[in-house]
Design goal:
98 residues, alpha+beta, Alpha-Beta Plaits, 3 helices, 4 strands, 30% strand
Length: 98
């Protein structure tokens, strides 16, 4: 059995773009959740810092994650959100150890 891949992707909005960024990020949820190999795709917003958004993801395998990264809806959103961010996204992939 192939181990799943967990991804934590954090983006930080500029203070004046929080609402616009949130709308764009929410738009990723449904199409991504329908992708083959997507086991979990959750968007969180920091309770104490409204500019801080984090996706918590789980993918069946590297091929599913690679397909997601190449998907038209993700590519379009990445292009649209780039000018709204205070800093580059922090995207990290993890393997479960226990």
């Amino acid at each position: 059995m192939t181990a799943t891949i967990h991804v934590v992707a954090r983006v930080t909005a500029r203070p004046d773009t929080v609402a616009e960024l949130q709308t764009l990020l929410l738009g990723l949820l449904e199409p991504t959740r329908r992708e083959p190999g997507c086991l979990r795709y959750t968007l969180l917003r920091n309770s104490h810092e409204p500019t801080d958004f984090t996706f918590v993801e789980e993918w069946a395998d590297q091929a599913a994650l690679d397909a997601h990264l190449a998907s038209p809806h993700l590519q379009a959103t990445v292009a649209a959100v780039s000018p709204l961010l205070a800093s580059p996204p922090d995207i990290r992939a993890y393997a479960v150890l226990g």
